[in-house]
């Protein structure tokens, strides 16, 4: 991935870098998979990844449940980003239901630290992160990024594909920007407003 794309997403508050440091010339980097799982646990999020996460599956019962029930795999067909309509298999929920807050399994946990041990800070609700890496937090999203008590209606997969095709007819050869805007605004259905976002997006 081009580094400047990651920097732009970070500036927009849509991506966070895991911390790292250099000690005596040696690079020390925190394990990003643990960050993703902890964030998904705290925010009732869905993790978008093709990683099997086998190496940390046994660290926490809550994480086992997330890995089994709240991981969304993806693929690229040319420049088209695609996710399955049946993320949990042919007998599981369809994508729209899978991404709905009320359909996500609720797990009672006792807290989790990065090292897989019980956290001593269990009485207070942790602050909600303002940005996420590969975690979809759909609980309180509203068009434009505002939060409220009422849940917005998410676009269907078919409607998103229709809007994508219409945006590409207006902005040809800008697949990356179109996909970025549609992903950032999962509830927005107004073609004119989406076009304005495309025009104003500094990519």
Task: Write up what this structure looks like.
The chain has helices at 3-11, 32-43, 61-69, 95-98, 157-170, 175-184, 191-200; strands at residues 20-23, 26-29, 46-48, 71-72, 75-77, 80-82, 135-136. The protein has 203 residues and is of the alpha+beta class. The chain folds into two domains: 30-139, Rossmann fold; 146-203. The two termini are 14 Å apart. Residues 109-134 and 138-148 have low confidence and may be disordered.
- First-last Cα distance: 14 Å
Number of domain modules: 2
What CATH calls the topology of the largest domain is Rossmann fold
The CATH architecture of the largest domain would be 3-Layer(aba) Sandwich
Q: Average the pLDDT over all residues and give the rounded result.
A: 77
The unreliable regions are 109-134, 138-148
The description of the largest β-sheet is: 3 strands, mixed
Strands ordered across the widest β-sheet: 4-3-7
Strand content: 5-15%
Q: What is the helix tally?
A: 7
Order of helices and strands: HEEHEHEEEHEHHH
Sum up the overall morphology in one term: globular
Helix content: 25-40%
Estimated structural class: alpha+beta
CATH class identity of the largest domain? Alpha Beta
Please report the total strand number as a whole number: 7
Radius of gyration: 18 Å
């Amino acid at each position: 991935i081009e580094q400047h794309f990651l920097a732009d997403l970070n500036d927009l508050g849509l991506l966070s870098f895991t911390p790292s440091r250099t000690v005596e010339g040696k690079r020390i980097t925190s394990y990003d998979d643990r960050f993703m799982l902890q964030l998904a646990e705290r925010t009732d999020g869905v993790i978008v990844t093709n990683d099997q996460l086998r190496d940390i599956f046994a660290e926490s019962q809550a994480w086992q449940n997330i890995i089994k029930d709240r991981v969304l795999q993806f693929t690229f067909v040319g420049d088209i980003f695609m996710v399955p309509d049946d993320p949990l298999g042919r007998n599981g929920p369809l994508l729209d239901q899978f991404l709905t807050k009320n359909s996500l399994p609720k797990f009672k946990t006792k807290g989790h630290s990065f090292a897989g041990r019980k956290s001593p800070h269990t009485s207070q609700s942790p602050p909600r992160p303002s940005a996420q890496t590969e975690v979809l937090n759909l609980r309180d999203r509203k068009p434009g990024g505002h939060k409220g008590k009422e849940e917005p209606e998410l676009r269907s997969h078919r409607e998103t594909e229709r809007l994508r095709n219409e945006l590409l007819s207006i902005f040809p050869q800008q697949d990356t920007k179109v996909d970025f805007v549609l992903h950032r605004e999962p509830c927005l259905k107004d073609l004119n407003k989406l076009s304005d976002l495309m025009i104003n997006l500094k990519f």
